[in-house]
Design goal:
The complex is a heterodimer.
Chain A (H helix, E strand, L loop, with lengths): L1 H5 L1 H35 L4 H28 L4 H37 L4 H26 L5 H17 L3 H14 L7 E4 L4 E7 L3 E5 L5 E5 H6 L2 E5 L9 E17 L2 H10 L2 H14 L10 H8 L4 H8 L9 H17 L17 E17 L2 H10 L2 H14 L6 H8 L4 H9 L7 H16 L1
Antiparallel strand pairs in A: 1-2, 1-5, 2-3, 3-4, 6-7
Helix pairs in contact in A: 2-3, 3-4, 4-5, 9-13, 10-15, 11-12, 14-18, 16-17
Chain B lengths: L1 H5 L5 E6 L6 H15 L3 E6 L4 H14 L8 H18 L5 E5 L10 H4 L2 E5 L9 H13 L2 E4 L11 E4 L16 H10 L8 E5 L8 H12 L5 E6 L7 H13 L5 E5 L5 H10 L2 E4 L8 H8 L4 E4 L4 H4 L7 E3 L2 H13 L1 H18 L2 H14 L6 E3 L2
Parallel strand pairs in B: 1-2, 1-3, 3-4, 4-5, 5-6, 7-8, 7-10, 8-9, 10-11, 11-12
Helix pairs in contact in B: 3-4, 7-10, 8-9, 8-13, 11-14
The chains are: A alpha+beta, B alpha/beta.
């Protein structure tokens, strides 16, 4: 009691300093966190919420540490004990700060991992990585506080990092590419992507080394993250609406059947035209497209070519060539128009010359029938994405069948693609756009490109 | 094609012609039969037998179908029928589809009454203007087939059976059509003493009036008035064509001493040389007065050469005027077309490239093969649109 009576100031001053500082710092902390909460509530960014939550608890400890440091400083302790107490408090501070930073960093990783659909395995890896790095800093900090030498440890860490980097020299670029992919967030689980190098499918998983995609055929393709970062990737976005009925693609081949019928002049031509089977009309109005699809979009029919070349009648030839086949939805109507054009021309001739214009011997018009053989292919589309990808690789004869033959020859009135888009996918606007496309004005490759463009535009 | 070939699983396609070697039909079959088998189609090939007299008769029939020669004598008719009967017994035709090539084995169809099956007559010759009695002699057999196949629309005739159009084709990997290094082309030119220092017009065909080699020289002389160029007429003479030597002599006389006209007698089987000459050409000419299919046109187009050709036989199928080449109808027209090409290299290049694409899509052996598969399938169907499951 005697010692206390003599030295009460040695205890009272530090205690007062401790309490005063504690009150002030806690008051400041309270004000600061009120402001921080208000700010966090105003913003949509979740990062500030994580920041506030991660530091709110430890900040009380930091107030106590600051107050304690002040108390030690004003105390009558010897210099040695002051240093020891200070080091102890700094140690406590570094550890609590490290725990807060870990909480903050892992909170942010969890938040962004969830936002960008990173795999749980990835999130765990990144969290552990952050913990290891912070742990190293904590150890270095504590050694420095306690005056222990850090040079040897730094060298050891450097060597360890070097060994790790060398052993992971293949994996590291993929790891960083994975970080980059996650940070950018442009590719997410469930997206349909296509790489410049041809791989394509739905993204099923993104781990630290690879991105795994499910191809249309169901197979899984694992692509190193580095490759995805370095190459051009088309991202079609989320899985698209599934069709009620899938689209089955058919292949088509054709054979030419000779009818033995021939015409040497216009009268003979028109007479045979009136009675020839529909397959003959179809062949002579579509043959040019099939045989010369690589060359020109000119929808010339055989009748116009023959009238111009063999009969030398360029005017009638032009009228027949100008016939807009796309206007017709049946071969009967097309035949009637051909007949009426020729008969109108014949009616304008001087009666005694009617039908006299004759083709040179050997250049008579030979009537040919088209025999179509339709076979199912293994291509089936369940949504727009699958449809457009199949369209890219579809044979031209198959494209021809679904666009030209089904509409006019099979009498469906519209092409198969439009019908499916409308009835099975409810893509009415796209169906109309495809139906409006006049295929007779394109080469088959040009037609394929236009269809792909229309569908891609819709997907994006 | 595999999808189509699968539909013929279990069927045997029996080809029959007159020889295993020599001639265009044997050449086609030697390539086609292995390809069909590779696709899983059981395709077989037999050849009929006959003595020298029989083949003289068939040669006469061949010429008569082309509109040359005379009707058959009663002895020739008897020999043809007798050999036909012997072959029916000897070959004992079997298979699900009997694919009979050309007139020589045509009588085999008499076996149809006994064994049934599907019979197809593949006519490789131009029968558009035959000597009628000869056609009349063959027609009763033709009528017994289930179908006939012709190479060009103009070759078809009114028949009571179905007729299909299947054009012949070229094999892009054969000696006549494969890519050649520049050194080989130069070596061939050097072998025949042809200098490659000016635009070269080339016509490859046997020396026959119907190929109009004299007309070619006349057209060349018209072109040469304004453009310095050379002409190569390359071909052979046929032992079965006594006229060919006369034509050759006439051509040489017409050429005179012009050092820019090269008349080259190419021995049979010189496919590589023909390939090289076509590849060396600036313009390839086919100025025929009459033509079967004229597959030399497709050969030239495959080499991306601008072609000037007469609008006869199967040539208009290969040359779409002003798209895949130029068609002409006379000497002046031919000269005009050649001048257009020689003075417009970009146009010539465009025509050549289009021509190559045209052949790629329509006259390669793959298309030919596909159409044979379609033909075999269609024999079991009468409708115009056939759905296969």
């Amino acid at each position: 009691m005697h010692w206390l009576a003599e030295n009460w100031t040695d205890i009272a001053f530090p205690l007062v300093a401790l309490l005063a500082c504690l009150i002030v710092t806690l008051w400041l902390r309270r004000r600061a966190y009120k402001a921080l909460f208000r700010w966090a509530e105003r913003t949509e960014w979740k990062g500030d919420d994580i920041l506030v939550t991660a530091t709110k608890g430890p900040s009380i400890l930091w107030c106590i540490i600051i107050s304690a440091l002040l108390a030690v400083e004003v105390s009558a302790l010897s210099a040695v004990w002051k240093t020891r107490a200070g080091n102890g408090l700094w140690t406590l501070f570094i550890i609590s700060l490290a725990l807060s930073v870990i909480n903050l960093a892992t909170g942010l990783i969890d938040y962004y991992g969830d936002k960008y659909k990173a795999s749980q395995r990835n999130i765990v890896i990144y969290n552990n990585l952050v913990r290891v790095v912070i742990f190293i800093f904590v150890v270095l900090g504590l050694l420095d506080v306690w005056g222990a030498p850090t040079g040897a440890l730094l060298i050891l860490i450097g060597v360890a990092v070097l060994i790790l980097a060398l052993s992971l020299r293949e994996a590291l670029p993929n790891l960083f590419a994975g970080l980059q992919l996650n940070a950018r967030g442009r590719i997410k689980i469930g997206d349909y992507i296509k790489l410049e190098t041809g791989e394509e499918g739905y993204v099923k998983e993104m781990d630290w080394a690879n991105t795994h995609i499910e191809a249309l055929g169901g197979g899984i393709i694992s692509i190193p993250n580095r490759k995805i970062v370095q190459t051009i990737v088309i991202n079609y976005g989320r899985q698209l609406k599934k069709a009620r009925e899938p689209f089955h693609f058919f292949g088509r081949a054709h054979l030419k059947e000779l009818t033995g019928l021939k015409a040497g002049n216009l009268v003979e031509l028109v007479n045979i035209l009136k009675t020839a089977p529909d397959s003959v009309i179809y062949y002579h109005t579509h043959n040019f497209i099939e045989e010369h699809h690589y060359l020109t979009p000119e929808p010339a029919n055989d009748f116009s070519v023959w009238v111009s070349d063999a009969l030398g009648d360029d005017i009638l030839g032009e009228r027949l060539a100008a016939l807009d086949t796309f206007e017709f939805t049946s071969l009967a109507a097309l035949r009637d128009r051909l007949v009426s054009i020729i008969e109108e021309d014949l009616s304008q001739e001087t009666p005694h010359l009617t039908g006299r214009r004759a083709a040179p011997e050997g250049r008579e018009f030979r009537f040919i029938k088209s025999i179509s053989i339709i076979v199912p292919t293994h291509y089936v589309a369940h949504d727009l994405l699958e449809f457009v990808e199949i369209l890219r690789i579809l044979s031209l004869s198959s494209l021809y069948f679904h666009i030209f033959e089904s509409r006019l020859r099979l009498g469906k009135g519209q092409n198969d693609f439009s019908a499916w888009l409308d009835s099975s996918l409810d893509e009415k606007e796209l169906a109309q756009e495809v139906a409006r496309l006049d295929p007779y004005n394109y080469t088959l490759e040009g037609l394929r490109s236009s269809l792909i463009q229309l569908i891609e535009k819709r997907i994006k | 094609m595999r999808l189509l070939a699968d539909k013929l699983a279990g069927k045997v396609i029996q080809n029959v012609n007159s020889t295993y070697a020599g001639g265009g039909v044997a050449e086609i079959l030697s390539r086609m039969v292995p390809l069909l088998n590779q696709l899983g189609v059981d395709a077989r090939w037999s050849a009929i037998k006959g003595n020298e007299e029989f083949f003289q008769v068939t040669k006469k029939i061949h010429n008569a179908l082309h509109g040359r020669g005379e009707p058959l004598s009663p002895q020739e008719i008897a020999l043809f029928k007798e050999t036909g009967q012997k072959n029916i017994e000897e070959i004992n035709p079997s298979g699900d589809i009997l694919f009979i090539h050309d007139p020589q084995p045509i009588a085999l169809v008499e076996k149809k009454k006994e064994i049934g099956k599907k019979w197809v007559w593949r006519c490789h010759v131009d029968v558009s203007q035959p000597i009628e009695p000869v056609w009349g002699f063959l027609e009763p057999w033709v009528d017994q087939y289930d179908a006939a196949v012709f190479s060009a629309p103009a070759f078809s005739r009114p028949l009571p059976i179905r007729q299909f159009l299947i054009s012949p084709s070229i094999d892009p990997l054969s000696d006549k059509n494969k890519d050649l290094p520049r050194e080989t082309i130069d070596a061939v030119l050097s072998k025949y003493g042809v200098r490659n220092d000016k635009p070269m017009i080339v016509q490859v065909s046997r020396f026959d009036y119907l190929k109009d080699p004299v007309g070619v020289i006349k057209a060349f002389k018209l072109v040469k008035r304004s453009i310095d160029c050379s002409l190569v007429l390359a071909g052979g003479t046929a032992t079965d064509d006594p006229e060919s030597n006369t034509v050759l002599a006439e051509v040489k006389e017409k050429a005179g001493s012009d050092p820019d006209i090269h008349i080259l007698l190419i021995p049979p089987g010189s496919d590589l040389e023909i390939n090289a000459l076509q590849r060396a050409a600036t313009v390839v000419l086919q100025k025929s007065l009459k033509e079967g299919f004229g597959l030399t046109v497709s050969e030239a187009l495959w080499k991306a050469k601008p072609v000037v050709a007469s609008a006869v036989g199967g040539i208009p199928l290969q040359v779409k005027n002003k798209f895949t080449g130029l068609l002409s109808h006379g000497i002046e027209g031919t000269a005009f077309a050649i001048r257009q090409i020689l003075t417009n290299p970009e146009y010539a290049k465009w025509l050549g490239e289009n021509g190559k694409e045209h052949v790629r899509h329509n006259f390669l052996i793959t298309r030919h093969l596909k159409e044979y598969l379609l033909l075999f399938i269609s024999l079991d169907h009468s409708e115009d649109v056939i759905y296969l499951s």
